[in-house]
Amino acid sequence: MSKKNYPKLSEFISEHFSKDDGAEIRAAAQEEFAQLQALQEDVTRIIAQYMAREKIGFNEMVRRLGISPSQFSRIQRGDGNITLATLAHIARTAGMKVRIEAEFTRAAGLKIFS
Fold it and tell me: Taking the model in full, what pTM does it have?
């Protein structure tokens, strides 16, 4: 059995799901991406506030966190897909407490996977 290569996820979705289900999948993906961007912006803001308050630069922040400059650069740009452990480490270093809040905005789950 040969595997078919799908250059784009949208092609896979179009071929394997109905138009309505495909639209629901795309909407869910866009919502998750927006939430991820918001979280990344929060982390970036926390770091910027800490660095400004402490009057420290990039290299000193890297030293305090004990991570590589490239990893910190990705986090600072919002490109780093950080773990909860890294988030907790950043918060502890900055003298902050992290709390995640969530609220229900609609019925949970995608019906097509049930």
Answer: 0.71
